Automatic annotation (TrEMBL):
UniProt name for this protein: 40S ribosomal protein S21
Gene Ontology CC entries for this record: cytosolic small ribosomal subunit
Species of provenance: Gorilla gorilla gorilla (Western lowland gorilla)
Keyword Ribonucleoprotein included in the entry's annotation: yes
Domain of life: Eukaryota
InterPro entries: Ribosomal_eS21, Ribosomal_eS21_sf
Length: 69
């Protein structure tokens, strides 16, 4: 199987995630409507290798989580 999409990079460190890196994850975080709190059909995709602290930092930068969290 060939990867036609190109390299897969970590959202936090911008390092290439290898095919054998079994500790890496990719997750979609849903965006919610500010008034109703319901899913608005959009999401942010994060690819992380290494630290789970990076997920919180990226979510704060994208205003998914409050900066005061």
């Amino acid at each position: 199987m060939q990867n036609d999409a190109g390299e897969f990079k970590c959202s936090a460190s911008n390092r290439i995630i290898g095919a054998k890196d079994h500790a890496s994850i990719q997750m979609n975080v849903a965006e919610a409507d500010k008034v109703t709190g319901r899913f608005n059909g959009q999401f942010k995709t994060y690819a992380i290798c290494g630290s789970d602290d990076s997920i919180l930092r990226l979510a704060k930068a994208d205003s998914i989580v409050s900066k005061k969290f």
